[in-house]
Design brief:
By secondary structure, the chain is of the alpha/beta class. Helices cover 25% and strands 22% of the residues. The protein is built from eleven helices and 21 strands. The strands form seven sheets. The protein has a six-stranded mixed β-sheet with strand order 1-12-11-10-6-7, sandwiched between helices. Strands 13-19-18-14-15 form a five-stranded parallel β-sheet. Strands 2-3 form a two-stranded antiparallel ribbon. α4 links the parallel β6 and β7. α3 crosses α4 and α8 crosses α9. It starts with 10 loop residues before the first helix and ends with a strand.
């Protein structure tokens, strides 16, 4: 799906629920700091605990976007952290990330690699910030990366867990292959797409500080939306723990919420849902749209992937893995793009928390192909879809989960074309092997849903590395 209107994608929600984004600028704020509305729009959640969803325009989760924009946003966030930490920055030739991808039209390449005497351990949050955290880790020479997960892995000890109370799926698990990573003396850097209250970050810091106290924590987010009390809460946490706690973001401000926003949000969802003509379901109700063409072809590709290379940070991704991943992604790009027309409109689609390798693949395709390439991901978060200008979530596809879970519903947003828009010529769906199950391929599964709204689907399957803990030393892994 391509966007051609210029209406801010939060207008529809602001007009109906009175929710507004308000910028703030603290003393010393960089002159190039973007506005909140430059980075995000608004949608309505199907969640009784929170009425609204901040929909990032640069994250690659709910809105298909140029992958170079996604990578550059993460890189610029990492650069701000590096400046805060006083890191030494080298030139662009040393950048280890996906093709040093600049954002289209920005004129700002993600230049430099940050060097610290003790590299930070970077921890990203599932499911939305797994790729963002990985990109931030790319900024730092020698930085290893771990992200939280909602996928329990039998036989892998749980290092820690914490809850994200406002989320649809609240529990976060930490499952590193080598718990010894936590014993390193460098700063610990937490990365999320949005800092709304800071409570999840505070819970993480408490849990990790109990395991291994350290002197310095930093929290990095695309958007810092905390009010005064929440800002004081993190400052007081640092005093309580005897540690420094810093916060860095690309943009800062707040969300203005009417007192009755939860009730108004539920009423709005009901009104949209009950307004569907029963004989012709609308996409705005979250149903899969009717196919626009005859069923398209489906191709499966098994990635040529080294047996000892992690596919992401679920169990830890070491800095030494970066060169091997770049080579594996380059080979995969050649595999999936064979036979595509030069001008084909391509979407690379990650799956839930499996986002960084698909993002790297999308960056590689965008660099090597003349046609447009976009990147997005599936999610487990239920959001109201409304096919109207000024709303961030225009269409929805629903499908059953296809990894370790069998209950519930999963979603992919803004991939089915809205009215009067052209579909993608090809969707490259990237899954790890654990998620390559019969449910992925069944008649109501994700592959069939994508096939109905595109010119064709290529399913790329990447081996996922699972630590062997019971019979092997910490850190030894096996591909499956």
């Amino acid at each position: 799906m391509s966007r051609t209107d210029t209406t801010w994608s939060g207008t529809w929600v602001t007009e109906r629920l009175g929710i507004r984004l308000v910028d703030t600028a603290a003393p010393g704020t960089p002159a190039d700091t973007p506005h909140l509305a430059d980075l995000a729009g608004l949608a309505v959640r199907r969640n009784p605990r929170r009425a609204h969803l901040i929909v990032s325009e640069v994250l690659g989760k709910h809105i298909p976007v140029d992958p170079r924009t996604v990578y550059t946003a993460g890189w610029l966030l990492g650069r701000r952290v590096a400046e805060l930490l006083g890191a030494k920055l080298t030139d662009i030739d040393a950048v280890p990330g996906p093709d040093r991808a600049p954002a289209p039209g920005s004129g700002i390449p993600p230049a430099g690699v940050a060097h610290l005497p003790e590299p930070p351990l970077v921890v990203g949050y599932a499911e939305t910030a797994t790729a963002l955290g990985h990109v931030v880790a790319d900024v730092f020479a020698g930085a290893d990366y771990l992200h939280s997960t909602r996928r329990p892995v039998p036989g892998v000890p749980l290092l820690g867990s914490f809850d994200e109370t406002h989320s649809h799926a609240t529990e976060h698990l930490l499952l590193p292959a080598d718990p010894g990573w936590l014993d390193r003396p460098g700063p610990l850097l937490l990365v999320d797409d949005e800092l709304s209250t800071g409570r999840t970050a505070a819970a993480t810091i408490r849990a990790l500080h109990a395991l291994r106290p350290r002197e310095h924590y930093a929290i990095a987010a695309l958007l810092d939306l905390r009010g005064g009390p929440d800002q004081r809460m993190l400052a007081e946490l640092g005093t309580e723990l005897g540690a420094r706690v810093d916060v860095v973001s690309l943009a800062a401000g707040g969300v203005v919420l009417p007192d009755d926003v939860l009730e108004r949000g539920r009423a709005l969802v009901d009104a949209v849902d009950t307004g569907r003509p029963p004989a012709a379901p609308r996409r705005s109700g979250g149903r899969s749209p009717a196919p626009r063409r005859a069923p398209s072809d489906v191709v499966r590709v098994d990635a040529d992937w080294p047996a000892d290379l992690p596919d992401g940070g679920r169990h830890g991704f070491a800095a030494r893995h970066r060169p091997a991943l770049a080579k594996a992604v380059s080979r995969l790009a050649e595999q999936v793009a064979a036979g595509f027309p030069d001008d084909a409109r391509i979407l690379v689609l990650g799956t839930e928390e499996f986002m960084y390798a698909p993002l790297a693949l999308a960056c590689r395709l965008a660099r090597t192909r003349p046609g447009p390439v976009r990147f997005s991901s599936t999610t487990r978060s239920p959001v109201l879809a409304v096919d109207e200008p000024g709303y961030a979530i225009r269409t929805t596809l629903t499908f059953p989960p296809h990894d370790h879970e069998t209950d519930g519903v999963r979603y992919v947003y803004n991939v089915a074309p809205p009215d009067a828009a052209e579909p993608f010529d090809r969707i490259v769906l990237v899954v790890d092997r654990t998620a390559d199950t019969p449910r992925l391929w069944q008649d109501d599964g994700l592959v069939a849903a994508l096939r109905a709204v595109s010119g064709g689907v290529t399913v790329a399957v990447v081996p996922d590395l699972v630590p062997v803990v019971a019979t092997a030393p910490a850190g030894q892994e096996v591909a499956r």
